[in-house]
Design a protein that fits this description.
Helix content is 29%, strand content 37%. It has 193 residues and is of the alpha+beta class. The chain has a five-stranded mixed sheet. Strands 1-2-3-4 form a four-stranded mixed sheet.
Length: 193
């Protein structure tokens, strides 16, 4: 597994990096046999240390957790406990869905844009159908089954996930509805699934 351990305006020593690698390897190996990458970022927020951990699995799932504490090691331990809980909760579902997957999930490149928001009362010279692009980034679209996409969305606590459906290679969307259920948009079908 590749590790990217960094600090935002704080120095992290070799001892902390070794601790992070050892603990994350133990946690991830218990629940998911094929991790590919782990990104751990330490920062300071007021008087607390913040540790953000994201683990990418070869199954296409991304698990993320954040921990806060007055000490940097305690912040990581808090984050790793949350990661452990997430992976433990999804272990059975991960095993069932990914037992047959022999290759890592295929990722497609896509553009991701942030558009300027406007107040309706604003008088703007620019046409509302042509909003201004504020930022442009690269995004990765995973090729997943619908069940895997739902798990990915829940693991990352995201409100929506765009993915390429493995059945027909079409772009699909899963999202969390206001009523708590999961919605699935598949433009290829005409309402009959």
């Amino acid at each position: 597994m590749r590790y990217q351990i960094s600090g935002k305006q704080i120095d992290i020593g070799e001892a902390l990096q070794t601790h992070v690698k050892t603990e994350l390897t133990d946690i991830v190996s218990k629940y998911a046999g094929r991790p590919t990458e782990a990104m751990v970022t330490f920062s300071k927020s007021g008087h607390e240390f913040v540790c953000e951990t994201v683990v990418h699995l070869s199954t296409g799932l991304n698990a993320s957790a954040t921990g806060k504490a007055h000490e940097i090691y305690a912040a990581f331990d808090s984050s790793s406990e949350k990661m452990d809980k997430q992976l433990r909760r999804y272990k059975r579902r991960l095993k069932d869905h990914h037992r047959e997957r022999s290759q890592p999930v295929e990722l497609s490149d896509a553009g991701s844009y942030i558009l300027e928001s406007r107040d309706e009362s604003e008088d703007s010279e620019q046409d509302a159908s042509n909003p201004m692009i504020v930022a442009e980034m690269e995004a990765k679209i995973p090729s997943l089954s619908v069940g895997e996409a739902v798990m990915q969305m829940e693991l990352s606590s995201a409100p929506v996930l765009v993915f390429r459906n493995e059945k027909h290679s079409g772009i699909n969307v899963v999202y969390r509805r206001d009523d708590g259920n999961i919605g699935w948009i598949d433009p290829r079908t005409n309402g009959s699934a």
